[in-house]
Amino acid sequence: MSAQHPTRTASARRYLMCRPTYFTVDYRINPWMDPAKPVDTALAVLQWERLHALHQSLGHTVELIEPIPGLPDMVYAANGATVHDGRVLGARLRHRERAAEGPAYEQWFRNAGHIVVKTAEHTNEGEGDYLVAGDRVLAGTGFRTEPAAHAEAQELFGVPVISLTLIDPRFYHLDTALAVLDDDEIMYYPGAFSPESRQVLRELFPDAIIADEADAWTFGLNAVSDGLHVILPQAATTLAAKLAARGFEPIGIDLSELLKGGGSVKCCTLEIRHRSSGSPR
Ligand code: ARG
Q1: Is the beta carbon of 101 within 6 A of some atom in ligand 1?
Q2: Cα(252)–Cα(187) distance, rounded to whole angstroms?
Q3: Which residues contact 279 (CB under 8 A, 6 or more apart)?
Q4: pTM over the 0.85 mark
Q5: Pocket of ligand 1 contains residue 267 by CB under 6 Å
Q6: CA of 262 relative to ligand 1 center, distance in Å
Q7: Which of 220, 208, 142, 212 is nearest to 174 (CA)?
Q8: 72 C-beta closer than 6 A to ligand 1
Q9: How far apart are the first and last CA of the chain?
Q10: Residue-wise DSSP of 59-75
Q11: Are strands 178-182 and 14-17 parallel, antiparallel or unpaired?
């Protein structure tokens, strides 16, 4: 590959995370979860703390929401809401095991002083299925978030919401199959999408980094980028090399315990996108 790529610059972000104090796998709502397999909660906490410290060491602000006993998946903060330009769309999670998480996150945003907070009418799993890419939102459906929720998001955020259909149950959330690297740059695994959605992605992002099945299988696409640094699971070495070739700085991290719940770096990180200055709203 040629070394033709823009100079990468990091910008400071604000994230919301939830310590996995009560993390375990005692139900199965995605193919990665196996309640028969032991989970080391203390190790999960340690690995999560490394991610938390890493975000901070890169200059980002990390807010914390208090974990609630009985909600083991609450550590996957990305599913708690979607925030674009200071507007918060609450999550409405599909499975009853996780249903109480949506209101808990919504309350956190209200307590933190966010003014525009919308309780969702349709099932949506927050940033698990909504990924902000510059002035548009990429939106997953097929397993969790309903198509009607995409229209709801578009009406709240006032930017185009691009619906993408997921077809492989291993990649049940958009953030397991696609990561936004910069406003107009993404990486994704085509096999996770319907042929028509693949066509849409090719059209919108002709220069995207294409991940292969092995990259996706290591959860490499569940990554968080600040425009320069891309934090991703450390097993995703081939994907890390592809990122480096494009001028990004990949940083691998081990979140093996949280992978047992079907999540990794991005799932644990909700981005709070504040109102852009000069915004007419
Ligand atoms: N066990 C959780 C579920 O299946 C994992 C959620 C992972 N989060 C994410 N943003 N992909 O709902």
Answers
A1: no
A2: 16
A3: 85, 86
A4: yes
A5: yes
A6: 6
A7: 142
A8: no
A9: 42
A10: T-EEEE----TT-GGGG
A11: unpaired
The span from the CA of 240 to the CA of 196, in Å, is 28
Q: Which two tokens stand for residue 147?
A: 């198509």
- Candidates 22, 189, 267, 271: which one to mutate for ligand 1, based on the most atoms within 8 Å of Cβ? 267
What is the set of domains in the chain, with CATH numbers?
Answer: 14-271 (3.75.10.10)
Q: Residue 75 C-alpha to ligand 1 middle, in angstroms?
A: 9
Q: How many Å lie between the centroid of ligand 1 and the Cα of residue 77? A: 9
Nearest CA to ligand 1 atom 12: 29
Quote the CA–CA distance of 197 and 23 in Å, as a whole number: 34
Q: Which of 169, 163, 131, 132 is nearest to 149 (CA)?
A: 163
Q: Which residues fall within 8 angstroms of residue 4, CB to CB, at 6 or more apart? A: none
pLDDT range class, residue 275, cuts 50, 70, 90: confident
Q: pLDDT digits over 146-180, tens only?
A: 999 999 999 999 999 999 999 999 999 999 999 99
Ligand 1 pocket check: which of 30, 32, 138, 145 to mutate, most ligand atoms within 8 Å of Cβ?
30
Cα–Cα dist 123/135, whole Å: 23
